[in-house]
Amino acid sequence: MSTASPGEAGPLSLKVQAKVRDGRPLIEIVIEDESAPFDPLSLPEPDRSGPAEDMQLGGLGVMLIRRLSDVQHHARGPCRGNTFTLAKFLPATGGT
Fold first, then answer.
1. How far apart are CA 89 and CA 51, in angstroms?
2. What angle do CA 69, 96, 88 make, to 5 degrees?
């Protein structure tokens, strides 16, 4: 895999874990790359007021991430580069 930043090459790591947070099960995805600083959460919501064929490219993936996950977080570290974390809480199974 390569970086999440368009036009840049470099390593990218992806980690998917099942966890329990505050007694609630969740799936957590962590994406790390070593590219230039880029916070996808800083992108504005795309304008969806017109026809789909008139929409600009870009931003729809971030919109889907915001809508389909419960937690989104970006951090920039000196050693790891960009770290983007998203999580989705799962419904309780109801078991005892």
1. 33
2. 5
Q: CA–CA separation, 85 vs 80, rounded Å?
A: 13
Is 29 in contact with 44 (CB distance < 8 Å)? Answer: no
Intra-chain end-to-end CA distance of the chain, in Å: 41
Contact 81, 35 (CB under 8 A): yes
What is the C-alpha to C-alpha distance for residues 39 and 2, in angstroms, rounded to an integer?
Answer: 17
Measuring CA to CA, which residue among 14, 20, 15 is closest to residue 1?
14
Q: Supply the pTM of this predicted model.
A: 0.77
In this prediction, the residues of the chain whose per-residue pLDDT falls under 70 are: 1-9, 94-96
Q: What is the pLDDT of residue 39?
A: 92
Q: Which residues contact 74 (CB under 8 A, 6 or more apart)?
A: 39, 40, 41, 42, 82, 83, 84, 85
- Per-residue pLDDT tens digits for 82-95: 999 999 999 977 65
